[in-house]
UniProtKB/TrEMBL annotation:
GO cellular component: mitochondrion
Taxonomic placement: Eukaryota, Fungi, Dikarya, Basidiomycota, Agaricomycotina
InterPro entries hit by this protein: CDP-alcohol_PTase-I, HAD-like_sf, HAD-SF_hydro_IIA, HAD-SF_hydro_IIA_CECR5, HAD_sf
Alphabetized SUPFAM superfamilies for the sequence: HAD-like (SSF56784)
Protein name stated in the entry: HAD-like domain-containing protein
Length: 345
């Protein structure tokens, strides 16, 4: 590996190739690391210890915690050191949205307890509320769920009848779909006040609605794929359409969105110490290794990256060809790295 790289332009400190690794179904399944993951990442880190500077990132539609917490979790599950600077979660791109809403009350959905509030505040959002805060303020908001002790302890109780929520960000997969759908409908139809009169008028969309992960399905450690945040989005839109006759406009971030892949390109280039995205000479060929044709392969192909589809996650060849054609199909992430190194030189 080192001889092949040094014989190419690695001597000027920049590598001809870079990697973006999806997480669920490629590196891990639930809380279980895939054996090929440790071998693949060890191979890259050994090359980088030789000074070969192969940039790589972990690019997931997962999240719900800080990049630091996710890196620590992955380090433990995979058994290989993962730096937080390499981790891009579904909501990491929202760091760029915080300034617009810094002084406005916003609703954040998904994850456990107030984990996502803490993440949003770390991005610069200053007035962040969760659906559990609203339920703690008025249990009649949704009479079919009672907060558990931890949720009660971490709730921030304010008078929501006085707080017009200006935007709703679905950071991660909601745990209480019915409560969250009820509250989204309440604030959209009332213009932001929970419990306020439904004055929503056609054509005005007072609440910006942002979803961070479009995945209908994802691969955990269950034999069949699991419903993801895209399923929650579709459930909300179905209920909203039954209520109003139309769906509600929203912003979709996460893979395969251009916003997420553009953000990922910038992070990869930062690893090349100041190389510019518009300098074709310095930008490496990026290999995206993923398990979901809809998010990983579609997004990589659109980004002009090479896409490598593994058979350890959502994609199952027994169900027919993938909806988006990868540059290469391989068994697992180790095969993907080996093929990319051969291909990239
Ligand atoms: O919630 C995470 C899931 O939607 C997929 O994650 O890592 O396969 O993009 P990932
Ligand atoms: Mg995946």
């Amino acid at each position: 590996l080192s001889r092949r790289f040094i014989s190419r332009d690695a001597t000027n400190g920049s590598s001809p190739i870079a990697f973006a690794f999806d997480i669920d179904g490629v590196l891990i399944r639930g809380k279980q690391g895939l054996p090929a993951a440790k071998r693949a990442l060890s191979m890259l880190d050994r090359a980088n210890k030789l000074g070969l500077k192969i940039p790589y990132i972990l690019l997931t539609n997962g999240g719900g915690v800080s990049e630091k917490a996710k890196a620590e979790d992955l380090t433990s599950i995979i058994g290989h050191e993962i730096s937080p600077s390499r981790v891009i979660l579904a909501h990491t791109v929202l760091k760029n949205a915080a300034a617009k809403y810094a002084d406005q009350p916003v609703l954040v959905l998904g994850g456990k307890n107030d984990d996502v509030r803490k993440v949003a505040e770390s991005y610069g959002f200053k007035h962040v509320y969760t659906s559990l805060d609203i339920l703690a303020w008025n249990p009649a908001t949704w009479p079919f769920y009672e907060l558990n002790e931890k949720e009660r302890q971490t709730a921030k109780i304010v008078d929501f009848s006085q707080i017009p929520l200006r935007a709703a960000f679905v950071f991660h997969d909601p745990r209480h779909w019915s409560l969250d759908i009820q509250i989204l409908c309440d604030i959209i139809l009332s213009g932001g006040i929970v419990g306020g009169p439904y004055t929503h008028t056609r054509g005005t969309n007072p609440i910006e609605l942002v979803f961070c992960n479009p995945d209908l399905l994802w691969k955990s450690n269950f034999p069949q794929t699991r419903l993801g945040q895209g399923a929650f989005r579709d459930a909300f839109q179905a209920v909203f359409k039954s209520l109003t006759g139309t769906t509600y406009p929203y912003v979709q971030l996460g893979k395969p969105s251009t916003a997420t892949y553009d953000y990922a390109k910038q992070v990869l280039l930062q690893q090349l110490q100041g190389k510019r995205a518009d300098d074709p000479e310095s930008t490496p060929v990026v290999y995206m290794v993923g398990d979901n044709p809809e998010s990983d392969i579609a997004g990589a192909n659109r980004a002009g990256w090479k896409s490598v589809l593994v058979r350890t996650g959502v994609y199952d060849p027994a169900n027919g060809p993938p909806a988006h054609t990868p540059t290469r199909e391989v068994e697992d992430v180790e095969d993907a790295v080996r093929w990319a190194i051969e291909d990239g030189l």
